[in-house]
Write a structure and sequence with these properties.
By secondary structure, this protein is largely without helices or strands. The chain contains one helix and no strands. The radius of gyration is 25 Å and the shape is rod-shaped.
Length: 331
């Protein structure tokens, strides 16, 4: 179909163009509100600044298409192929993006509030500065996890996002807002969360092996059974974090804030806690095998049952702490 015929038919009232072949079509600024283009071939199409709110683009081939500045509020794009597509500054609030193929897509500064991204492939996509508040990336039972491997989410706003079971392996989340996010059973192996805000996040059973969390805010997080082996949490804020049974083997916690943290039964073998602040922390049954606690402040902490036999405790402040044998330490 030629583009002129398409526009003429649409403006005359026709709305359903399912299966149409319009590869490479130029529809810059076009008013296509509510149009039906499901199962269509629109690869390399130009929809810059187009109006596509409530449009149906389900299962369409939109590979390398351009939606910069376009309005796709409440649009249906489930199952669409958007590989290498361009969405810089686009508005997709409440859009249905389930199972979309968006690898290497550019979503820089896009409005993605309340978007349904379940089972979507966003591997190596650019989501820098995007607003994803309230979006759904949750892995459903027997469903595929949302794929964010290698994605750029630097300074993205992910407050309250459901990322349960999502794959964020090697993703970059530098300075991202992840407050109150659900990352239960998510995979962030090798991810970069430097200066990220994870205050109040749910991180139960999370995988953070080798991740960078330098200066990150993890206050009040729930991280039962989290795996942070070889992670770097230098100067991270873990105040009042709940982390029972977590694995922090060889984890770097230099000058980290662990005041009032609950670390019962945590494995801190070979971890570096030089200068860490752990006042009033619950450290019952913690495994400190060859742990570096040099100059750490553990005052008023509870260390009942902890193994400190091979730890470096040079210069540690234990004043007021309940020691492994149940005795209170006084200078």
């Amino acid at each position: 179909m030629e583009v002129n015929e398409f526009i003429q038919r649409y403006t005359s009232g026709e709305n359903d163009f399912s299966g149409v072949m319009l590869a490479g079509v130029d529809l810059v600024g076009a008013d296509l509100i509510g149009i039906i283009l499901q199962d269509s071939n629109l690869s390399r199409a130009n929809f810059t600044f187009a109006y596509l709110s409530r449009a149906n683009l389900s299962r369409a081939n939109l590979m390398e298409s351009n939606f910069s500045g376009a309005n796709l509020n409440q649009a249906s794009l489930d199952g669409a192929n958007l590989h290498r597509s361009e969405f810089h500054g686009a508005i997709l609030q409440k859009a249905d993006m389930r199972s979309v193929q968006m690898s290497l897509a550019n979503l820089l500064d896009a409005n993605l509030m309340e978007v349904d991204f379940r089972s979507a492939d966003l591997s190596n996509a650019n989501l820098k500065g995007a607003c994803l508040r309230g979006s759904n990336m949750r892995q459903e039972k027997r469903g595929k996890p949302t794929n964010l491997k290698g994605a750029n989410l630097d300074k993205a706003d992910l407050k309250n996002v459901d990322l349960q079971g999502a794959d964020l392996t090697r993703a970059s989340l530098v300075g991202a807002n992840l407050a109150d996010v659900n990352l239960r059973n998510a995979n962030l192996t090798g991810a970069d969360l430097t200066q990220a805000n994870l205050k109040g996040a749910s991180l139960t059973d999370i995988k953070l092996e080798g991740a960078k969390l330098i200066g990150a805010n993890l206050s009040n997080v729930k991280m039962e059974r989290g795996n942070l082996t070889d992670a770097d949490l230098t100067m991270a804020n873990l105040e009042s974090a709940t982390m029972p049974d977590a694995k922090l083997v060889r984890t770097n916690l230099i000058q980290a804030n662990l005041n009032f943290a609950r670390l019962n039964r945590v494995d801190l073998s070979r971890a570096n806690l030089y200068g860490a602040i752990m006042r009033n922390a619950s450290l019952m049954d913690v495994f400190f095998a060859r742990t570096n606690l040099t100059s750490a402040d553990l005052s008023d902490s509870n260390l009942i049952g902890a193994d400190l036999s091979s730890a470096n405790i040079t210069g540690v402040n234990f004043n007021g702490s309940i020691m492994p044998d149940g005795q209170v330490y006084h200078k």
